[in-house]
Design goal:
51% of the residues lie in helices and 6% in strands. It is mainly alpha-helical. The protein has 2 domains: 1-52 and 130-137, Arc Repressor Mutant, subunit A; 57-110, no CATH class. It is elongated. GO terms for molecular function: DNA-binding transcription factor activity. Pfam families: Rrf2. This is Transcriptional regulatory protein.
Length: 137
């Protein structure tokens, strides 16, 4: 979206990310509520970034999409009376908490401006031009 001079539709974003426009709209709604993007209706409407790229971090985005679980592996509670399950959960609690804290700290240190700079450097090095609909080809 930062590369587009005008708002980008959910359909264009969905093609770029190889997903469904409904998924894009649902995700963008959370980002809009967080003040990270804005939407415009009607002809020529779509999504645009609401703040400068250096003012948005990965942590902002993570929170804007509802702070989903970071790890597929984690606390099991299938059988809360199982002593093995309790022992495993107890042993892993500190490790998962520390890993999550470290990851969220890193999210807070990475701005969209830094990602954009890396993206531009990679595109230049590969001899590509920026085309949102084909960025993932």
């Amino acid at each position: 979206m930062a590369e587009s001079p005008r708002p980008v539709t959910s359909e264009v974003l969905a093609r770029a990310m190889r997903t469904n426009p409904v998924v894009v709209r649902r995700t963008m709604a959370g980002l809009r509520e967080a003040g990270l993007v804005r939407s415009e209706k009607g002809h020529g409407g779509g999504w645009s970034i609401a703040r400068p790229l250096d003012a948005i971090t990965l942590l902002d985005i993570y929170r804007g999409i509802g702070a989903p679980g970071l790890f597929a592996l984690g606390h099991r509670s299938d059988n809360p009376h199982c002593l093995v399950e309790k022992a495993v959960n107890h042993a892993l609690d500190g490790a998962f908490d520390a890993a999550q804290s470290l990851l969220l700290e890193r999210f807070g240190a990475v701005t969209l401006a830094a990602l954009s700079a890396d993206f531009h450097a990679g595109m230049l090095a590969a001899g590509h031009t920026i085309d949102l609909e084909h960025a993932h080809d």
